[in-house]
Task: structure prediction
Amino acid sequence: MASITLDHIAHAYPGPIVAPKQYALKPISHVWRQGRAYALLGPSGCGKTTLLNIISGLVIPSEGRLLFDDRDVTNVSTEKRNIAQVFQFPVIYDTMTVAENLAFPLKNRRMDRSSIERRVREIAHLLDLQTVLNRRARGLTADAKQKISLGRGLVRSDVSAVLFDEPLTVIDPALKWELRSKLKAVHQALDMLMIYVTHDQVEALTFADEVVVMKDGAVLQIGTPADLFERPAHSFVGYFIGSPGMNFLPAIVSGRTGTVDTVVFDLARAYQTPAPGKRVELGFRPDYAAILPTGGLPVRILRVEDLGRRRLARVALGAHEAIATLPPEVDLAPGESAGLHVPPEHLHVFVDELRIEGRAT
Amino acid sequence: MMDKPWSNRAWFLVIPVLVVVLFSSLLPMMTVVNYSVQDTMGQNSFFWNGVGWFQNLLDPTSDMGGRFASALVRNLIFSLVVLMIELPLGIAVAICIPRHGWKVGATLVLIALPLLIPWTVVGTIWEIFARQDIGLFGAALNGIGIHYNDTEDATSAWATIVIMDVWHWTGMIALLSYAGLKAIPDAFYQAARIDGASRWSVFRNIELPKLQKVLVIAVLLRFMESFMIYTEPSVVTGGGPGEATSFLSLDLVKIALGQVDLGNAAAMSIVYYLITLTICWIFFTVMTQLDQRKGV
Result:
């Protein structure tokens, strides 16, 4: 039972810091709570692995404090931290059998033999490894090896947290889905704090209760998958989450209207006119915008993409382009004029990339 | 199959290789085989002796047989001793070599230095180093009261040859092992830390298994070289005192060039060659089979 607190944690790899962008991880404060599943989501090099390694102790942060419950562990070694971590590529001990691999973290902590055996059997059952328990680990396939790595991460019941660093990278796409739902089930069964690093939004959104979106060493938003989708705090979150990402159109916002070139959008809330010189954008998701033959805002169809389950239209709106959903009953060809319908509650205003809330009246 | 074009002209392209192999290996070898089945009374006249030399050589009760058997045993012990010292020592050195920074280059150059010295020079260095009057090693040992004389005392001579070989070749095992260690991804060490493994356990369960392939090569190279050692002991001890450090090569040269006993020398050459080949083959087969069986 533990929560993990990041208290103004920041990290820069060796060398003098002269500009804030040299931080591999910019200052962050957050509390990870027991029993929850978190995902760290962001493009490669955004600092998510650094943050993970700080929690596990493989990297000592250059600033801030790390607390497990109330204990300051900032400078405590990995071995004494009671944390489990699974790496991107399978790490197995070649000389040992699968069962010995799973038992290794427990044996090193001098657990008694019968408890080890019971625990190994439990984990093997969770991960479907019973049939290979007595085989040598080195002869197995990559995904079986990664299951062993996962098993070694999960085998200790007393850990403060289990950290996953893109654990499904080497796994076959078909098995990925299976392993992911298995992990989710394991999380529910074991009630552990789990932190999962990935650059794949589907993985993050299906696995986690809360997702931390990172970019360039900074945390942009922490929220539930629904939060990230419905109310992205940063235009990068809007763009990165969702497939395809959010549309952004440069606009002039005043009161309850947003004007893109000459086209006027009605907004659900009233906004103060942002200071001049700031970049103001209107954002909306393709999923909530519909293209109909009549009404709405005047657009011209550029291209229609049939994704099987749904169709998307790329349209020209003045000098700008946007993507919207083409409902099944509508039949429009490229070059035709049509109407764009965006419900006002799904229109967001971003000022210098940050989403701002309007007033209700 | 039948309509595949067939051209014998391709054989012409193989001829240069065949000629080179003929003159570099086959003909010299056949000369040795030729001597091994003939005897001579001098004046360049030879007559057929069948397997007589071989019978003599492989019978330990005969003069030549006894001499060969004791040189063989001496040489096997020598190979075993240097392997048992150099292998663990080389791995230990490799583990201690720094992994990052300017120290890496400096250390590697220092370790590789003995490997770059010509073998006769290595022998000369140690011959002088071991002398009791002016040699640092010999004089120092006698100075602190340890009786040491590599020209009169068999134990001293053996110690000198073994230490010299360790000095000369441990670096090669260290360099090979270092290359093997560098190939282990960081994640293995990190995972071991997370799993709470001890330093010994990391060595036993991660480093040693990952080094296995490199070590097979290292052991093979070291065995062959130490089993055929000639230059260094011939300079340092000349095979003495008595026969104490007369390894197979030294003995062979004595018989062939010292006594001009061509029949015995030729038979010994062939048996020597076959022994080396067999041991290496057995060793290699066992190691690779072991490797494959573990994979199941």
About this structure: The domain at 4-240 of chain A is CATH 3.40.50.300 (Rossmann fold). The longest helix of chain A spans residues 173-190.
